[in-house]
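Internal ticket - ligand job 361, pyridoxal-5'-phosphate:
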Amino acid sequence: MTPFPRADYDGLSLYEPGRGPVAIDLSDNTNLWGTHPTALERIRAATTDDLARYPELYADVLRDAVAERFGVDPECVTTGAGSDDVLDSAFRAAYAPGARVAYAAPTFSMVEPFAAMNGMSATAVPWPDALGDAALLLAESPAVVYVCRPNNPTGELAPREWVDQLLDARDTGGARGERPGLPLVIIDEAYGDFAGETLIPLAASHPNVLVTRTASKAYGLAGLRCGFAVGDRPTALAVEKSRGPYKVARPASECAAAAIRDAGGWLATCVAECVENRERLRAELEARGLVPPPSRANFLLCPAPSGSAARDAAALRELGIGVRAFTGIPNIEEGLRVTIGPWPLMESFLEALDRTREART
Ligand SMILES: *Cc1c(COP(=O)(O)O)cnc(C)c1O
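stdout (structure tokens):
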């Protein structure tokens, strides 16, 4: 008999980011300007069929919108219940006994759990080392290399040339052109809308590269659970098989599709204001001697003195401001990740931050 649950699940716990209700929540990088108006209209127009009938098997409406917006073949697109679901499906499709996931650390906190959930062990390479030599990520012959671009929680964008070096090292190390020799390289572009650049065209034309995207951040649709990814046809097909049918609800697929088709409208306005406020907040922080890493995302990682990030986040929470504390950050050690929103929210954050820092001295 095989005991339940599987033995390696002992090391897994439920996700607990330490969020609770708070007056101003700057902790999860969702869109603080609200949600896409066209998407909201579509939800309000829900019909009996939306709920009573099964949705499309593979979210064709969403898939086609992605293909059109990014100029790729629909067969190069896969979708899921959030990009978490796409990542999980991709890991599952990459699994083999003893397989590993390599990533540059610190990065998105779900990478380790998704590796473990899919029976793989994860190898962390510190970001400064990985940036110096991309091939370090390939050192242990991983099945998956995960790169977050821009990176969560620092906001930094690994240079395009660095990604090219990683792929070159992979392609020449494995049997060039031969799919079975190549690990899957995942580029997580959850914040790609803010960075204003994407590797989607590269993924569509290169073997075993998958770029993942989400409707949860810039589009303001986190509650819908909608994500998508682009790879070449065999890569997208493998992830579609792993994902399975009926993963995206019909209203979710249609809302996200409408939002994606309207990239020049509401989305562009939000992104522009977000980028402006991000740099304005950076200037305010720098005036206080706090220099965040350069961010291309919708958040800043505000440095906190060694040993104080968790305490500062708790103190801010007492003042009604939710931020997320991180430790083990190269160059700054610890930091508070602050989601960028409309300026009055940033002012409230700065006021609370000043009070917290005064109370500390
Ligand atoms: C928020 C986030 C995701 C998850 O997005 P969902 O589509 O809501 O599952 C994926 N990757 C990174 C880096 C994120 O920050």
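Auto-summary: Residues 266-287 form the longest helix (22 residues). Residues 37-261 form a domain with the Aspartate Aminotransferase; domain 2 fold (CATH 3.40.640.10).
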